[in-house]
Amino acid sequence: MERLRKDGYPVRAIANPLRGLTSDTAYVSSYLSTIDGPVVLVGHSYGGAVITNSAASDPDVKALVYIAGFIPAKGETVGDLAAKSSPPIPLISTAIPGGTDVSIDLAHFREVFAGDVDETTAANLAAVQRPANTKAVSDAGVEEAFRTIPSWSLITRQDHAIAPDVQRFMSKRAGSHTEEVNASHAVMISRPDAVTHMIEDAARDTR
């Protein structure tokens, strides 16, 4: 965000509720309706599924940018795509009223999510991670915004959360402009230069 603001771009960081793809899509769609002017919509990880569905409702969205992100097709779930990665992510489950929340096991967080981030930062990320409801991976996508909106995809070669080959498959299917970087799933922290570059490319190419 600091790099984008320095280059003159206004930035909004939407707090993804992580309650399920259907409800999260509705939340982000509602948030987008409050923004005037052209939007470059960026999604990291599960956020890629959310922008794929929510962008279809807003004609002001001019570009989609996937940062190590899921790009589901209609009828497909994040769980379907995650199952293509191996080994599975070690998770901790917590029963809540009306469902189950999951988070990455703290003991494995760095190796899964932030292998190229220093130990202290990785420990902080693990401690503040927000649990996601299992509906985030079980709700099926209903829109394919990448069919009508140009998309970019940053593929992370050292990713142990979403396998690089799975990222390549989704990006090719979506027709995204792709770049690859030697980085973990926490690429926005370890390689902010690459993330900023891709977002600004999308902004320039869709003016």
Arithmetic mean pLDDT? 97
Overall geometry: globular
Q: Give the N-terminus to C-terminus distance in angstroms.
A: 20 Å
The Cα radius of gyration reads: 16 Å
Helix content: 25-40%
Number of strand elements: 7
The second-level CATH architecture is: 3-Layer(aba) Sandwich
**What count of helical segments does DSSP give?**
10
Q: What is CATH's topology name?
A: Rossmann fold
Low-confidence stretches: none
What's this model, at a glance?
InterPro entries: AB_hydrolase_1, AB_hydrolase_fold, Sec-Metab_Biosynth_Hydrolase. Pfam families: Abhydrolase_6. By secondary structure, this protein is α/β, with parallel strands linked by helices.
Architecture overview:
The protein is α/β, with parallel strands linked by helices and 207 residues long. The chain has a single domain, classed as Rossmann fold, CATH 3.40.50. The chain is built from 10 helices and 7 strands. It has helices spanning 2-6, 21-32, 47-54, 78-82, 109-113, 119-128, 135-138, 164-174, 187-190, 192-205, and strands spanning 39-44, 61-67, 91-96, 99-104, 132-133, 151-156, 177-181. Strands 1-2-6-7 form a 4-stranded parallel beta sheet, sandwiched between helices. Strands 3-4-5 form a 3-stranded antiparallel beta sheet. Strand 3 (91-96) and strand 4 form a beta hairpin. Helix 2 (21-32) crosses helix 3. The longest helix has 14 residues, at 192-205.
